[in-house]
Amino acid sequence: MQMDVVDQRIIALLVADARASYAEIGAKVSLSAPAVKRRVDRLRSTGVIKGFTAVIEPSAVGWTTEAFVELFCTGRTTPAQITVATRRHPEVVGAYTVSGQADALVHLRAADIGHLEQALERLRAEPFVTSTRSMVVLSRLVETPTAVPI
Predict the structure, then answer these.
(1) What is the pTM of this model?
(2) CA 82 to CA 71: how far, in whole Å?
(3) DSSP track, the chain
(4) How far apart are CA 103 and CA 133, in angstroms?
(5) Are 41 and 1 within 8 A, CB to CB?
(6) Average pLDDT over residues 111-138
C-alpha cells in the first residue's frame, strides 16, 4: 500500500492519542473529518492499522517485575512453534526471533519474583527449549509506542 505524508501524520496522531476525533485529526492535517475517516478506514482495511487499544501501566495492575529471557531451542524449532508456545503464557508480552547465539528473546511481566520464576519454569518446560538466560529489568528508561515520524 502506498502511504503519503498525510497518512503518516494521521498514524502518528493516532499513536499519540487513539481517542482523538476525526475532526481533531483533520484540523491538524488540513482535511475534513470524513476525509480522515476514509483514510483511517483504508489504513485499517490494508492492515497498516491493526487496531486501537488502551496502554496500561503494568505496575498499576500489579505486574511490577519484568525480564527478558533468551531462549535456546532444539535445532529445528521454527518461529511458528515459538509463537504458538509463547502465546500460551499470559506473562509473555513480546517474543522475537533474534540473531546471535539465542534463538528467541521473550519479554515477560509478572507480579513479583516468585511469579516470574513460575513463568520461567513453564517456559523452560516447552519441549523445544534446551536452555534460557534471563535478565531481570531494574528500571524502564524509554518505552514508546510504535510511531511514524511526522
Answers:
(1) 0.77
(2) 9
(3) ----HHHHHHHHHHHH-TT--HHHHHHHHT--HHHHHHHHHHHHHTTSS----PPP-GGGGT--EEEEEEEEE-TT--HHHHHHHHHT-TTEEEEEE-SSS-SEEEEEEESSHHHHHHHHHHHHTSTTEEEEEEEE-S------------
(4) 11
(5) no
(6) 97
| Segment 129-135 long-range contacts (CB within 8 Å, at least 24 positions apart) | 129/71, 129/72, 129/73, 130/72, 130/73, 130/74, 131/72, 132/69, 132/70, 132/71, 132/72, 133/69, 133/70, 133/72, 133/102, 134/67, 134/68, 134/69, 134/70, 135/67, 135/68, 135/69
Q: What percent of the chain stands above pLDDT 90?
A: 81
pLDDT confidence tier of residue 52, bands split at 50, 70 and 90: confident
In this structure, what C-alpha cell is assigned to residue 105?
Answer: 528473546
